[in-house]
Each structure stands twice: as structure tokens, then as C-alpha cells.
């Protein structure tokens, strides 16, 4: 039996397809509104890219050599007693809010007077889903990854209002 010349190429493509598709680059614009009202713009996000000697994972300005896609990255948001939000991965000073595009996702943190009052009156929107802080608990936003990029965004220690 004679095989067509394309069979070995097809076999090689299937064998190595997981590696060839295991790249993503979600570096996006991040607009920070500081506690004093000033605004700054920067780029922040994630990338998993093939380099000459392996793979490299980028988080903001940081780079590290890795062998596989990291399972997740966690962004911590802390609301302190002075009703200030801290996101130390973004800034060394407290924030009034932020707007961040990362891949297909939109995240936005802002103040909004609410009734009944919520801790700090801060709202976190992730792709139009609202979340509110819980008193005394740091919020965690878990970005889960697979070979194609962000597979899920999970929020921990925040309340989701009833619709």
C-alpha cells in the first residue's frame, strides 16, 4: 500500500499542533485613576510566546521562562479601612478605579453611590457582570489559562448582586 505524500505532513501537524497553538498575547491598555484623581495609561496583560530556547510567560513588564502554559494568574484587589483600593500589580498607590482590556475581556473598577451602601461603594465590572467588595476580605480575580489563552475568569471574595 502506498501512502500519499501528505500523510506524513498531516501526522506531524496533528502531533505537534498542541505546541504550535500554545501561544497567546493579551497585552492591553490599562487606564488607572489614582486616589488623587490623576490618570495614567499603561499596557498590562499576559503573553505566552515561543522563544528560541523554549517558552516565555509575560505578566505586565515581567518575563519568565516556562515549560508550559501557567495554570492561572491572580490579581488581588484590597479595600482598606480608609476605603481605598489597592492593586499592587498595577500601582504602588491607591486607586479610585481602572479600565483594562485584556484579550476579549473588559474589566472596570469604579465608585458608585449605592443604596444600600456597599463597602467603599466600589463596583467591579467584568464583561458586564457586577461584583462588590466584602468587608475585610481581599478580592481575588483568577485568570485561568489553557493553550489558547484565558479560559475562564473567576472572582473570589466578592458579592454578585441578585438580578
Describe it.
With 163 residues, this protein is mainly beta. It has one domain (19-159). It has one helix spanning 6-20; strands spanning 24-34, 39-51, 54-59, 62-66, 72-79, 85-86, 95-102, 105-111, 122-126, 129-133, 139-146, 149-156, 158-159. It has a 9-stranded antiparallel β-sheet, with no helix packed on it. It starts with 5 loop residues before the first helix and ends with a strand.
Q: In a few lines, what is going on in this structure?
A:
The protein is mostly beta strands.
Note the main attributes of this structure.
disordered N terminus, 54% strand, 163 residues, 1 helix, mainly beta, 13 strands
Low-confidence segments: 1-20
Give the oligomeric state. single chain
- The total number of structural domains is 1
Mean pLDDT: 87
| Strand runs, count | 13
Main structural class: mainly beta
**Could you give a short account of the major beta sheet?**
9 strands, antiparallel
Q: Describe the global form.
A: globular
Helix amount, in percent? under 10%
The CA-CA distance between the termini, in Å, is 64 Å
Element string (H = helix, E = strand): HEEEEEEEEEEEEE
Rg is 20 Å
Helix count from the secondary structure assignment: 1
Q: Please indicate the percent range of residues in DSSP E strands (runs of 2 or more).
A: over 45%
* Strand adjacency order, main sheet: 4-3-2-1-7-8-9-10-13
